[in-house]
Design goal:
The complex is a heterodimer.
Chain A: H1 2-7, H2 14-36, H3 39-60, H4 109-118, H5 122-125, H6 128-131, H7 136-149, E1 150-153, E2 156-159, H8 162-168, E3 174-175, H9 178-184, E4 185-188, E5 191-194, H10 200-208, H11 260-270, H12 277-285, E6 288-291, E7 294-296, E8 344-350, H13 351-354, E9 359-360, E10 366-369, E11 386-389, E12 398-399, E13 403-405, H14 423-442
Parallel strand pairs in A: 8-12
Antiparallel strand pairs in A: 1-5, 2-4, 3-7, 5-13, 6-7, 8-10, 10-11
Helix pairs in contact in A: 2-3
Chain B: H1 11-18, E1 21-22, E2 29-30, H2 45-50, E3 58-64, H3 70-83, E4 89-92, H4 99-109, E5 125-132, E6 140-146, H5 149-157, H6 163-171, E7 174-180, H7 181-185, H8 190-212, E8 223-228, H9 234-238, H10 240-247, H11 249-258, E9 262-266, E10 268-278, E11 281-292, H12 295-305
Parallel strand pairs in B: 3-6, 3-7, 7-8, 8-9
Antiparallel strand pairs in B: 1-2, 4-5, 5-6, 10-11
Classes of the chains: A alpha+beta, B alpha/beta.
Chain lengths: 443, 306
């Protein structure tokens, strides 16, 4: 065999040459059968040829099927006939954290940081595991991206549940028995919250990076359902996409048709997580506690009364989601857009724990917040109103935005202590960081 | 010894008897001061409102078993069409016609479904409205009623118990049949039979009418089969006809054979539902209101009624 290998071109493995030889022999038998009119030879040759063409050709040609993912998805070639041009502008190297990430390392730390920032994974760069490998300039760039994309929500207490709506009615102040109030109050630590819901374009990058195929991003209970998370053409992706691509012109629209698990997986990939009910409400209602037991919260992010020009609800007659930067007058005090209207947003909390005791909600239901373009009543799209949905549901009007707790960041880390790590080390750190997010999130 | 007494001649009372008014639904004569028809218990306000109209309002029969979602559908339809800025648009005639919308919208906005419609005909909601649509320059006058599903069932079992139902079926110009898509998907066809009986009754009354007038015309009335609660059955939203073929074959077949002009629609009002305790018993409540496909069946029906 070793001698034989010397005669073969070194770039193809022996197994492929054996398969090719088998193909040639089968052909020869078939031709001999025809030539000498021997039915047995003809039959054997034909069967062999059919078997070879059916199973052996792809391997013998030295081509593994690129359409079969590690999870067994049959993926069509990534043609984008009806897809936004902006999706094409993504660098080819963006797959670096996908299947071949460790074999296709970027040329330099600079390139690596560029790629991560382009993909919206700046949160990973700011984690202690990553930041120690980066210099000050890279950190500054990452922090700048963070500030552009996310708004700071200060620590404090927020009122949830039935009393929350009272805190925004009439006087705008709840002055209840402190003990009773305490039951519905929750403490929120300082966090960053996405200024906009996650867009189709952003989600495309997760999908292109092989996010649906990397099991570490997914909850264990979601794995059996993973093969059902497909688009209109059976490709992995949000429900209303086509051939693994969002529809033309919808790059800036919030991604919808994603289950709670898909939202959570995207969050892990991006180094963030879904906000809890308390965090989401804190960002929108912006509570002010003037004295213990005396708290005022906004009913809508912009104030107390509803204004149809500030949120995309049924009354806006848009009949579908709009771009995430539309209705900019409806931003919150902290500068977060579209907390109310356009699409419901998945929350990390369960509805059963958040709802009133008289409600019997399935335990699996996850909380959704903020109302959507087809929410009919304004009072069901306040900062305090909570609805729910099954975590596997992929509805046309449910999207999500992500949160990033301040405690997970390493922005104040001493840059002198940073070591100039290799790209390999950074990639590994990113991986570890993403997996750690998973662990934290699962807890 | 006789005394002379002056008794005022209440001529207006005599006039009322002399010029009776016909009930719009059963077309029986009633005293002008009556608030409800003495035969079918339909409100006489409908007759008064349409008295001066050039054309009598078109009556739409909304049929469906108990729990199919008739009250929610009709109340939501009214609320959407009256809130709508452009066309199509609806204008209610008389305060009576607004009560269905009021009951439904109030309940839904506070996180409840409207209460079940009572058996008693006096508690049924009657609506007389003007429907403005793109295809017609002039608005079309329409009358429909929210009748208890149990009353339909009772009427099919004991004909004549509710004269208003018989009259409504006999005089309607279009039919909306509501069927619960969730029940159909679960294979529960018990409620189909009530609807099937109503469709049979509808056909029989029509034939009787034509026979009395010695006419021989084919059925021209349009019928909209609406699959309600479609939010719980994905397939019914994407292709209602296919869903009906798969899960409501008998009902669809009956509609097809009796009403050549028919169309299948799907609609939903709540985005998700849960249960809530009310005096110890769990009640189904909406978690959010996201109406879909409410206007389309009605718009199609009115257009087809010509």
């Amino acid at each position: 065999m070793m001698q034989l290998r010397n005669f073969l071109p070194s770039d193809l493995p022996t197994s492929i040459w054996i398969q090719r030889a088998t193909g040639a022999i089968v052909c020869l038998v078939f031709i001999c059968g025809i030539w000498w009119h021997i039915p047995s030879l003809l039959g054997v040759g034909a069967v062999g040829l059919v078997a070879y063409l059916r199973y052996g050709w792809t391997a013998a040609a030295g081509v593994s099927d690129p359409r079969t993912s590690s999870l067994g998805f049959k993926c069509q070639p990534r043609v984008r006939p009806s897809v936004d041009r902006e999706a094409r502008t993504l660098p080819n190297s963006k797959r670096w954290l996908g299947q071949e990430e460790l074999t296709e390392l970027p040329e330099s730390t600079e390139t690596l940081v560029d790629q991560m920032l382009e993909m919206g994974r700046y949160a990973l760069l700011l984690r202690p595991q990553m930041s120690r490998h980066l210099d000050r300039e890279h950190m500054v760039r990452a922090v700048r991206h963070l500030d552009d994309a996310m708004a700071l929500v200060p620590a404090g207490r927020v009122l949830l549940g039935p009393l929350a709506e009272l805190s925004s009615s009439s006087s705008g102040v709840v002055d209840a028995d402190p003990k009773r109030l305490e039951r519905f109050m929750q403490r929120v630590d300082t966090l960053y919250l996405d200024r906009y819901p996650v867009t189709n374009f952003e989600f495309q990058q997760f999908l292109d990076a092989g996010g649906y195929e990397k099991l570490e991003y997914w909850d264990e209970e979601a794995l059996p359902a993973l093969l059902d998370f497909v688009d209109q053409t059976g490709q992995p992706g949000p429900r209303y996409w086509i051939e693994g691509q969002f529809r033309s012109g919808e790059g800036r629209r919030p991604v919808v048709g994603v289950s709670w698990y898909e939202a959570a997986a995207y969050g892990r990939w991006a180094g963030k997580r879904l906000p809890t009910d308390a965090e989401w409400t804190k960002a929108g209602a912006w509570p002010v506690e003037s004295a213990p037991g005396r708290i005022a919260q906004r009913r809508y992010p912009w104030g107390e009364s509803f204004d149809i020009r500030r949120a995309n609800l049924w009354g806006s007659h848009r009949q579908g989601p709009v771009d995430v930067d539309d209705f900019s007058d409806g931003e919150s005090v902290g500068g977060i857009q579209q907390l109310v209207g356009n699409v419901w947003e998945w929350s990390a909390s369960s509805l059963a724990t958040a709802s009133e005791p008289s409600m019997h909600v399935p335990e699996t239901f996850k909380s959704v917040r903020g109302g959507a373009f087809d929410t009919y009543f304004e009072n069901q799209a306040t900062c305090h109103y909570e609805s729910g949905e099954h975590p596997l549901a992929r509805r046309h009007n449910i999207g999500f935005r992500l949160a990033l707790p301040m405690s997970t960041l390493d922005v104040a880390d001493d840059s002198d202590a940073q070591s100039n790590g290799s790209e390999q080390a950074i990639v590994q750190a990113a991986e570890t960081s993403a997996v750690e997010t998973t662990c934290v999130f699962s807890r | 010894m006789s005394h002379l007494a002056q008794i005022p001649l209440e001529s207006y009372l005599l006039a009322q008897q002399a010029a009776p008014i016909e009930c719009l639904i059963c077309q029986q004569e009633n005293c002008r001061s009556a608030t409800r028809c003495r035969f079918c218990r339909a409100p006489m306000a409908l007759a008064h409102q349409s008295e001066n109209l050039k054309h009598a309002p078109r009556i739409i029969a909304v049929l469906g078993a108990s729990g199919a979602g008739k009250t929610t559908y009709l109340g939501m339809l009214m609320d959407i069409l009256t809130r709508q800025v452009g066309l199509p648009h609806m204008t209610a005639r008389g305060p009576l016609s607004i009560s269905l919308q009021q009951t439904t919208a109030t309940a839904l906005s506070t996180g409840w479904f409207p209460e079940k419609t009572a058996h008693d005909p006096e508690h049924w909601h009657w609506v007389h409205c003007q429907f403005h649509c793109r295809r017609r320059r002039k608005p079309i006058e329409v009358v429909f009623a929210d009748i208890a599903g149990d009353a339909f069932a009772e009427e099919t079992a004991h004909a004549g118990r509710y004269p208003a139902i018989q009259a409504l079926l006999a005089h309607c110009a279009g039919v909306i049949v509501l069927a619960d898509a969730e029940r159909l998907k679960d294979g529960d066809h018990e409620h189909d039979f009530v609807t099937l009986k109503l469709l049979t009754l509808l056909g029989d009354l029509r034939e009787e009418q034509l026979h009395n007038r010695r006419l021989r015309t084919s059925e021209r009335r349009p019928l909209a089969l609406v699959l309600t609660k479609a939010d719980k059955c994905d397939g019914s939203i994407e292709d209602p006809h296919e869903f009906a073929e798969a899960h409501a074959g008998t009902l669809l077949g009956s509609c097809q054979s009796r009403f050549p002009r028919h169309q299948v629609f799907s609609c939903s009002v709540a985005g998700a539902t849960a249960h809530r305790d009310l005096y110890g018993s769990p009640q189904l409540v909406p978690l959010r209101i996201e109406p879909h496909g409410i206007v389309e069946p009605f718009g199609w029906l009115v257009t087809e009624m010509g």
